[in-house]
Protein backbone atom coordinates (compact mmCIF):
# COMPACT_ATOMS: atom_id res chain seq x y z
CA UNK A 1 0.00 0.00 0.00
CA UNK A 2 1.37 3.42 -1.03
CA UNK A 3 0.84 5.63 1.99
CA UNK A 4 1.74 9.32 1.60
CA UNK A 5 3.08 11.19 4.63
CA UNK A 6 0.66 13.74 6.00
CA UNK A 7 1.55 17.40 5.80
CA UNK A 8 2.29 18.67 9.26
CA UNK A 9 0.92 21.92 10.62
CA UNK A 10 3.65 22.03 13.25
CA UNK A 11 6.54 24.42 12.88
CA UNK A 12 9.88 22.97 11.79
CA UNK A 13 12.48 22.77 14.52
CA UNK A 14 14.18 25.88 13.20
CA UNK A 15 12.06 28.05 10.93
CA UNK A 16 13.84 29.92 8.18
CA UNK A 17 14.00 33.69 8.64
CA UNK A 18 12.19 35.69 6.02
CA UNK A 19 13.39 39.13 5.04
CA UNK A 20 11.23 41.30 2.82
CA UNK A 21 11.90 44.46 0.91
CA UNK A 22 9.99 47.50 2.18
CA UNK A 23 6.48 47.81 0.79
CA UNK A 24 5.47 50.51 -1.63
CA UNK A 25 4.20 53.58 0.27
CA UNK A 26 0.50 52.94 -0.43
CA UNK A 27 0.78 49.24 0.46
CA UNK A 28 2.57 50.23 3.67
CA UNK A 29 -0.29 52.60 4.52
CA UNK A 30 -2.79 49.81 3.90
CA UNK A 31 -0.82 47.45 6.13
CA UNK A 32 -0.65 50.07 8.91
CA UNK A 33 -4.41 50.69 8.63
CA UNK A 34 -5.12 46.96 8.75
CA UNK A 35 -2.87 46.61 11.81
CA UNK A 36 -4.53 49.61 13.47
CA UNK A 37 -8.08 48.29 13.02
CA UNK A 38 -7.26 44.70 14.01
CA UNK A 39 -6.64 44.75 17.73
CA UNK A 40 -3.88 47.36 17.47
CA UNK A 41 -1.38 44.85 16.10
CA UNK A 42 2.13 45.88 15.22
CA UNK A 43 2.54 46.19 11.44
CA UNK A 44 5.12 43.36 11.43
CA UNK A 45 2.63 41.04 13.18
CA UNK A 46 -0.11 42.08 10.75
CA UNK A 47 2.22 41.47 7.78
CA UNK A 48 2.89 37.96 9.12
CA UNK A 49 -0.85 37.30 9.38
CA UNK A 50 -1.45 38.68 5.87
CA UNK A 51 1.20 36.46 4.32
CA UNK A 52 -0.03 33.40 6.24
CA UNK A 53 -3.60 34.03 5.11
CA UNK A 54 -2.53 34.51 1.50
CA UNK A 55 -0.53 31.27 1.51
CA UNK A 56 -3.33 29.25 3.09
CA UNK A 57 -5.85 30.68 0.61
CA UNK A 58 -3.47 29.83 -2.25
CA UNK A 59 -2.63 26.31 -1.04
CA UNK A 60 -4.76 24.60 -3.70
CA UNK A 61 -3.02 26.41 -6.57
CA UNK A 62 0.45 26.03 -5.04
CA UNK A 63 0.00 22.32 -4.42
CA UNK A 64 -1.43 21.78 -7.92
CA UNK A 65 1.83 23.16 -9.33
CA UNK A 66 3.86 21.05 -6.89
CA UNK A 67 1.90 17.94 -7.96
CA UNK A 68 2.40 18.72 -11.65
CA UNK A 69 6.18 19.00 -11.37
CA UNK A 70 6.42 16.07 -8.93
CA UNK A 71 4.58 13.89 -11.43
CA UNK A 72 6.79 15.19 -14.24
CA UNK A 73 10.00 14.17 -12.46
CA UNK A 74 8.59 11.01 -10.87
CA UNK A 75 8.49 11.82 -7.16
CA UNK A 76 5.65 12.38 -4.70
CA UNK A 77 4.19 15.81 -4.13
CA UNK A 78 5.52 15.73 -0.58
CA UNK A 79 9.04 14.96 -1.79
CA UNK A 80 8.79 17.84 -4.30
CA UNK A 81 7.47 20.23 -1.65
CA UNK A 82 10.33 19.29 0.67
CA UNK A 83 12.91 19.57 -2.12
CA UNK A 84 11.65 23.01 -3.15
CA UNK A 85 11.89 24.09 0.49
CA UNK A 86 15.26 22.51 1.33
CA UNK A 87 17.09 22.41 -2.01
CA UNK A 88 15.45 24.71 -4.58
CA UNK A 89 18.49 24.56 -6.90
CA UNK A 90 18.27 20.77 -6.97
CA UNK A 91 14.52 20.92 -7.71
CA UNK A 92 15.08 23.41 -10.53
CA UNK A 93 17.87 21.30 -12.01
CA UNK A 94 15.80 18.12 -11.85
CA UNK A 95 12.83 19.77 -13.54
CA UNK A 96 15.03 21.30 -16.22
CA UNK A 97 16.71 17.93 -16.93
CA UNK A 98 13.35 16.25 -17.46
CA UNK A 99 12.04 19.08 -19.65
CA UNK A 100 15.23 19.04 -21.74
CA UNK A 101 15.02 15.26 -22.14
CA UNK A 102 11.37 15.52 -23.22
CA UNK A 103 12.27 18.28 -25.69
CA UNK A 104 15.13 16.23 -27.16
CA UNK A 105 12.86 13.20 -27.43
CA UNK A 106 10.16 15.16 -29.23
CA UNK A 107 12.76 16.79 -31.52
CA UNK A 108 13.90 13.35 -32.64
CA UNK A 109 10.31 12.51 -33.59
CA UNK A 110 9.80 15.59 -35.78
CA UNK A 111 12.35 16.59 -38.39
CA UNK A 112 10.84 19.97 -39.30
CA UNK A 113 10.11 21.21 -35.74
CA UNK A 114 12.67 23.87 -34.88
CA UNK A 115 11.14 25.31 -31.72
CA UNK A 116 13.50 26.59 -29.03
CA UNK A 117 13.47 25.24 -25.50
CA UNK A 118 11.94 27.83 -23.21
CA UNK A 119 13.03 28.18 -19.61
CA UNK A 120 10.37 26.36 -17.54
CA UNK A 121 10.26 29.06 -14.87
CA UNK A 122 9.46 31.97 -17.18
Keyphrases for this structure?
single chain; 122 residues; mainly alpha; 5 helices; disordered N terminus
Word description of this protein:
α1 packs across α2 (43-57), α3 crosses α4 (77-86) and α4 crosses α5. This protein starts with 24 loop residues before the first helix and ends in a 13-residue tail after the last helix. Residues 1-6 have low confidence and may be disordered. The chain has helices spanning 25-37, 43-57, 59-73, 77-86, 88-109. The longest helix has 22 residues, at 88-109. With 122 residues, the protein is mainly alpha-helical.
Summarize the structure.
The chain is mostly helical. The chain has helices at 25-37, 43-57, 59-73, 77-86, 88-109.
SSE map:
Layout: H1 25-37, H2 43-57, H3 59-73, H4 77-86, H5 88-109
Helix pairs in contact: 1-2, 3-4, 4-5
Number of helices: 5
Low-confidence parts: 1-6
Largest sheet: none
Report mean pLDDT, rounded to a whole number: 84
Share of residues in strands: under 5%
Q: Give the end-to-end Cα distance, rounded to a whole number of Å.
A: 38 Å
Determine Rg (CA atoms, Å).
Answer: 20 Å
Mass-distribution shape: elongated
Structural class: mainly alpha
Which H/E pattern describes the elements?
Answer: HHHHH
Helix content: 55-70%
How many β strands by DSSP? 0
